[in-house]
Amino acid sequence: MTLFNTSAFDLNAYLARVAFDRRPARPGLSTLRDLALAHPRAIPFENLNPLLRRPVRLDIASIQEKLVRGGRGGWCFEHNLLLGTALTALGFTVTGLSARVVWNVPPGVVRGRSHMVLLVPLPEGPHIIDVGFGGSTPTAPLRLEADVEQATPHEPFRLATVDGGLRLEAKLEGTWKGLYVFDLQPQALADYEMPNWYLCDHPESHFLLGVVAARVERDRRYALRNTELAVHFPRGETERRTLTSGPEIRQTLEDVFHIQVPKEPEVDEVFARLAGVTAATT
Hints:
Elements: H1 11-17, H2 29-42, E1 45-46, H3 48-51, H4 60-69, H5 76-90, E2 95-101, E3 113-120, E4 127-129, E5 142-143, E6 157-162, E7 165-172, E8 175-182, H6 189-201, E9 212-217, E10 220-225, E11 228-232, E12 238-242, H7 246-255, H8 265-281
Antiparallel strand pairs: 1-9, 2-3, 2-8, 3-4, 4-5, 6-7, 7-8, 9-10, 10-11, 11-12
């Protein structure tokens, strides 16, 4: 079975969701650039399903219902499966890759392959695109070329050669920081289902412990971790604010991250608990 199943995919609904207005959309670098920014502006990274102990399903019908029609966001597998399906429907050739996250991982520690990246061949050369890395999602496609600084609407990125693959790095406050390491081995849906289950259900998954959300605008990045809201600007400035209650967490998710937060009382109970835990530890 193909990784990107377009038979039940509503391309027009997706393009409307990400406010892609340069139609007709044709396969090419300019379309890829537009979607690399439009997608993470419109569809946030968020972990409400794991936090609420609800499943994260990777079939395209479930992803469309949640991220396109439901006003929700998701994490890397949902984002990049959605984008990969849209690109395939537009006529691109897309391959799914997997990566080991090295962001904030101590040297010498090797994590499992828990991230999804897309590889897209173009006349200008192969590019990677990734709309699902949360707070440091690259907002432009990147040429598959090592040791070259590449501009995006936000921070510069580069690919560095490492044993067995490439490491994606972002230049943050003048310092290159690694995000993840990947190779060019094509992946099947089953290769993503196992890490998706681990991140969603394993008791040691950090996604079960608190709320995480991220979204970009053209001139900034928004990031939320529990009660800590940060607004990062490309020139290096950061504004921070601490949320003080469960209702404020909900309002921030809705107003800043544009998430249609579920209305069930259990959701607000979780937010109140997170706000209370943060207050007790400060």
